[in-house]
Amino acid sequence: MYCIVLCCVVLCCVVLCCIVLCCVFEMFHAPAVILATMSFGLLVHSWTEESYTLNSLFNPVETSFGKLGITPSGKPDEHPCFRGFDSAVAADGVCKGFSRAYANDGSPVLFNAGSGRPNYKNFSFAQEVGVFNLYVETAMESPPDAMDKLVEMVTIADNLNGEDRFTPKKPYFGNSSSASWLEELCLTVGPMPFWRSCGNRITVLLAECGFVNAFVSTNPSFFFPANNESPAAHDLIFVMCVELLMSTDKTIEAHALTVIHELTHVIQWTPSIPYSIYEGVPPSLNPPC
Ligand SMILES: [Zn+2]
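Above: query sequence and zinc ion SMILES. Below: predicted holo structure tokens.
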């Protein structure tokens, strides 16, 4: 009897989720079948990953840590976005001893650079900057100063030069001890989901998109912790379109805030809600400029 009631409740939830999501996404003309899958995915996801998704809406910071057995090391050099990473990749951790290695040897790497639907392209490793790995679409002819702008963008986002003007300050930010907008993001909204990537780098893909934007694009298997068979696309990734990077009506600070915006999506990315929990910059990150 209990099972029947439970099944009815689950069915009702799925239908309700479908209706709500259909209404929400009507404006984007997303196919109903995708929405139904997303709704069901949300439901399953919220159970299987210990309600991370739902809780994260209300209590985002470290919601999952206890359940996932993640313990921040407390060491001062542990980046706030990857606090607890060592415990996640330990032999008895959620990644079961797997830790993603980044070859960075110049050979092309296949990543998903699709917006909305998968579009796998080759990328070449360009540079390591702080916690970022920067890649450029292999077939693209980059504008001369594109790489400089890309480096400056992530340097400002994590304030790698320790400039006072890029240090979060009250009343604009919630945590005055943060050294950068990126740290502030991870301390207020939540750490990067490294318990799925099992890696402690953020990948930025500079791609020729054919439109002006930046977006999160990853692998559908991101639902699960990575293992040694996971593709490169199963990672913490966002795509920066070269068309946006090179547009003249945006300052480099605006691009740095785009990094923060996209990484908010990465933090809240689930297979069921890939893009749309947050839009805009998180409330605690209202930029002072
Ligand atoms: Zn967005």
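The first helix runs from residue 2 to 25.
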